[in-house]
Write a structure and sequence with these properties.
Layout lengths: L7 E7 L2 E8 L2 E7 L18 H14 L16 H11 L7 E2 H7 L6 H9 L12 E2 L14 H12 L1 H4 L1
Helix pairs in contact: 3-4
Length: about 170
């Protein structure tokens, strides 16, 4: 959490379900689907729709689902640890319509044996879609897990394939 500052909250609908965004002055702290089991208690607090970061989060997510935004510009609150920050930055470098594996991501961030630590970090990713953990596959191209619900992972990958994979070829 960002010091003693209580996060501001805003919920909005998307094609894959209702999302809850949390923001602190330093940036977006969390973005969850409201049915995720790891939704923090603060996500149930009173809404604050006038917060500019929350409005920006809703707009950028709407643009993503509309197929017009592949890269998010939202400022993000720092990750709790240096390793988690490296995982976040490495994953954000994986473009829309692309995938990677836990092992490839571990190597990309300078931790070639750290694929389990990468998987554990992503299992608790507080910024779904923006830190695109849905783009990480298990060894052999299997879907692996997804904290926002395994049914959503192929939907997000298919959405990106429709809108951005043709640009990569």
């Amino acid at each position: 959490m960002d010091g003693a500052q209580r996060p501001q909250r805003w919920a909005f609908d998307t094609p894959l379900g209702r999302m809850v965004a949390l923001a602190v002055p330093s940036g977006l702290l969390g973005l969850y689907f409201d049915d995720q089991t790891d939704l923090p208690d603060v996500a149930l607090s009173e809404e604050a729709p006038a917060h500019p970061l929350l409005c920006q989060a809703q707009r950028e997510i709407a643009e993503y689902f509309g197929g017009t935004r592949a890269v998010f510009e939202l400022p993000l609150a720092p990750a709790p640890t240096a390793f988690q920050q490296r995982v976040r930055e490495g994953l954000r470098a994986v473009g829309a319509g692309q995938t990677t594996t836990y092992g490839e991501l571990a190597r990309a961030i300078g931790s070639p044996r750290g694929f389990r630590a990468v998987a554990q970090t992503l299992a608790h990713n507080p910024l779904v879609i923006i830190v695109p953990c849905h783009r990480v596959l298990a060894h052999g191209g299997k879907l692996g897990g997804f904290s926002a619900g395994l049914a959503r992972k192929p939907q997000l990958l298919a959405h990106e394939a429709r809108h951005w994979r043709p640009l990569l070829q």
